[in-house]
Amino acid sequence: xxxxxxxxxxxxxxxxxxxxxxxxxxxxxxxxxxxxxxxxxxxxxxxxxxxxxxxxxxxxxxxxxxxxxxxxxxxxxxxxxxxxxxxxxxxxxxxxxxxxxxxxxxxxxxxxxxxxxx
Length: 118
Prior knowledge:
The protein is mostly beta strands. Helix content is 0%, strand content 55%. It is built from no helices and 11 strands. The chain has strands spanning 4-7, 10-13, 18-24, 33-39, 46-52, 57-59, 67-72, 77-82, 91-100, 104-108, 112-117. Strands 2, 4, 5, 6, 9, 10 and 11 form a 7-stranded mixed β-sheet that branches. A hairpin with a 3-residue loop joins strand 9 and strand 10 (104-108). It is globular, with a radius of gyration of 14 Å.
């Protein structure tokens, strides 16, 4: 059974930084891609960033230049470094892993709250 465990959320002032971690119960190379999504109150879940098994990344325009995804293969962990945080970054952040075969299967973490105060 795939488990994704997030940590690192919290309360930060605008302009500050946070780093989120997501540790998988399997090798991250078990997945075609991993990444982060977020969901703000009253809004749909949206893509923040993904990274494929070969290292290709896809960032949402709203976070380009401020957020960075990285991974530690030996620790089965993916990180999201968030800098220059804005109030509009406030959301629950979810770790995501994908397996692609005949269809794409998504796995999700439990979510971690990020609150940016202005």
